[in-house]
Amino acid sequence: MRLPGGRRVRANGAKKATTCYVCAPHDCLQSGSRRMKRILLLVILVTVAVGGGRALYHALASDRRRIDWLLREEVDAFDAANVLNLMPHFATDYRDDTAGIDAQMLRGGVVWAWQNERDASGGFAWHLELPEGAGEVTLDGDAATAVFPLQLWRRSADTAQLVWGLRVHAQLQRRDGAWWLVRSTHETIEGKAPRTR
């Protein structure tokens, strides 16, 4: 027995599957399948457009912008206490002339701090801050100089205390298309350099 709307009912009152009389059953499935394919295609196109746009933005960025990003990535890597991303833009022959340390010594000091400088909750207690727009970059072909302030803070509970404020003069070189920190000097503006215990 058929009811209005195309539904069939068995004699004992149990309902059977709905049948569409406007189009054949396989056409309804194909229409839904086409709709899902269109939605999936739209999602893929949007993803490619956003990803491609970001890649294009990074590819066309000026050297100044790339150096700004490099410095920000270094600060973020320190704050994250991520050993796998430790000093990603320091050249192997890096040297700080003020402190007389090379890349290996600096790396060892950073790892020591990550392991030993903890707050009450067990999190990394130090925080580096690179004030936005406070630095200046001078380019000269494949060499660059960046002068910027850097602040080291100690966090505990709800407070933060400035441990060391310094002004860094960094020399960078472009090697194989990427910028690398190769040398630096610094001057203390406020506080003092932390010492390992």
Topology:
Elements: H1 25-59, H2 63-80, E1 90-96, E2 101-102, H3 103-116, E3 126-129, E4 136-140, E5 143-156, E6 159-175, E7 178-191
Parallel strand pairs: 1-7
Antiparallel strand pairs: 1-2, 3-5, 4-5, 5-6, 6-7
Notes on the structure:
Helices cover 34% and strands 32% of the residues. It has 197 residues and is of the alpha+beta class. The chain has two domains: 60 residues, no CATH class; 129 residues, Roll (Nuclear Transport Factor 2, Chain: A). Strands 1, 2, 3, 4, 5, 6 and 7 form a seven-stranded mixed β-sheet that branches. A hairpin with a 2-residue loop joins strand 6 and strand 7. It is extended. The termini are far apart.
- Low confidence ranges: none
Largest sheet: 7 strands, mixed
- Kindly report the CATH topology of the largest domain: Nuclear Transport Factor 2, Chain: A
**Cα-based radius of gyration, to the nearest Å:** 30 Å
Task: Give a nutshell description of this structure.
This protein is α+β, with helices and mostly antiparallel strands and about 200 residues long.
What attributes characterize this protein structure?
197 residues, alpha+beta, Nuclear Transport Factor 2, Chain: A, 3 helices, 7 strands, extended
